[in-house]
What we know:
Layout: H1 5-40, H2 46-62, H3 64-77, H4 80-99, H5 104-107, H6 110-140, H7 146-184, H8 186-190, H9 192-203, H10 225-261, H11 265-293, H12 295-318, H13 322-330, H14 337-365, H15 372-388, H16 391-402, H17 406-424
Helix pairs in contact: 1-2, 1-4, 1-6, 1-7, 1-9, 1-10, 2-6, 2-15, 2-16, 3-4, 3-6, 3-15, 4-6, 4-9, 6-7, 6-14, 6-15, 7-11, 7-14, 10-11, 10-12, 10-14, 10-15, 10-16, 10-17, 11-12, 11-14, 12-13, 12-14, 12-17
Amino acid sequence: MVSDRRLQRRAIVAGAVGNVLEWYTFAVYGYLAPTIGPLFFPSEDPVTSTLSAYGVFAVGYLMRPLGAIFLGRVGDRIGRRAMMVWSICLMGIASFLMGVLPTHAAIGVASPIALTLLRMIQGFSVGGEFTGSMTYLTEVAPHHRRGVFSSLAVVGGLAGMFLGIFSNWILIESLGTEGVAAWGWRLPFLLGLPIALLGLRLRRSIPETKVPMAEVVAWRDHGGIWVHVRRVLWIIALVTGANVLFYTAFVYAPDAAIAHRAQGAAAVQGITTAAIALQGLAIVLGGWLADTLGRRAIALWGGIACAVWAWPGLSLLLGEGFLWQAMIDAAPFLDSTSARFWIGEIPLTLSVGVIFGVQGVMIAEAVERELRCSLVSIGYSISIAFFAGTAPVLTAWIQDRAHWPDLIGIYCAVWCVLAVWAAAVARETSPSHAQPR
């Protein structure tokens, strides 16, 4: 804990700004995938191009565990600050290079190869950034405000997601789809460099919270490798549900709705932007409730809400499937793009936001401080890499190839049920219920 309030404020801003960059540059690719697909993966079938672009999106996530292993150990051995400085530099450079990258029409097959490599660098960077900043803000916070402080790291990431979809919306409104496809798609990536420079300047002056080197011990001194494997599996179970639901509802579903119905693009982008902005408030609320009522209770009730609304909410957003047909027969007004997106997204926005607000502090406090960056980063990154990050390409395949749109909501609901179980078996670590570790 850092007692100086001025240093605490500086640490909050530095952690949040870094996450803004990391998730803005990382997520903007997902929102622009339908535009980028034909430019780097030309095909006679537009769906194939889009699936290829989402495949590269998933590749970035698959690199997160490698980044977590390397950067997590940097955080535990060298320092949390070094971990966050390295990650923001990697992300800023990769983002800029992506913005100036020639398309397939200019350099042929070298273009998609280079795009894939840059996405791998981005994924490696995020593997340490997101969990590193959550861990750092948890450690720098007063014990009775750990939930709120750690939630601000998630808010920074969400702000980046918000800027990503907002920039996409502005591009569509200002340039039109043709202008975005011609050159406008480059602008959001180029903007990543000045944000990185700002974040780097802030992070170089923040206080360090790493334990002294004399206290850093081997993994075997904390119960052995199998104890850590069980902790990693528990982290995966706890965090995957809300993240799979988020990437399906707020990354894939808006683009899919526009592509399949070819109408309402401005309404979909505008409502999703508003929903993500509202989610920022829900995240801070989740952190505050975690400090007030306990981590376990908030994770339980938030997980139940996610599990209940996953299937109907995604059916509304995608506008397809058995459940969608049943809902529209009962309420014909849901056929309106605006109505179905407002009703579908807002409950997901609130429930997922509350879960995000409690997750950071819950998993950080569950692990010894000496190994916290490593285990938290590995568990969280495996969850995102193999399940949440692949959700857009998996759901695209389910909808366009398997023709079973109801399975998308069911898949997300199953993960949310697993998260409820993980919360139920967790030990309470809130200072109002137990001594923090």
